[in-house]
Fold this sequence. Notes:
Helix content is 74%, strand content 0%. The protein is an all-alpha fold and 178 residues long. The protein has a domain at 9-78. The longest helix is centred in the middle third of the chain and has 35 residues, at 78-112.
Amino acid sequence: MSNELDVTTDEWLLKTLKSAQDSMKGMGMCRRSPKRWMTVARHIVEDGLNVSDFLRKSGCTRNNYYDIKRFITTSDDYEAIRSQAALDAASDYEMGKDLERAYTEKMHQKMESDELEIDAKGWAQIQRGQSLKADRFQKFSGAATQHVVVENRTTLDEAAAFALEAIKQVTEIEAEDI
């Protein structure tokens, strides 16, 4: 079993565009503007975040975007292509983390040798970055999720009174039946 995909993202997107053009009658976006269709499709496969910002920048309508998304997500190999895009994004993230660690280590060395002093503006930027990382971690870990717990609290006296009332009703019903 090979870990390599049989198809690259570009080849798959071109195959999917051709399929969309064959299935579309009239003047669908895939026929009118294949380049824009491919841009939307690539965004759906490789990013999929900030849809409103993407729509504003690309000039695509929300209906077209979701029509393309519906067509793509039902296509062959979509899950494999999407998984590969996620792995690529994870690799990019890891490279960024390595770079950040190296830069942070260099800053610590300069601070220890008194070559660098962080001013208030720099400190604020560091804190803002840490806050964003903490927010992202909380979203992924579920720590930012609110849990609502509903408890019915009854005292022992209330429970005993309720039980006695239930017993009285049962015995009254039984007495009437006889």
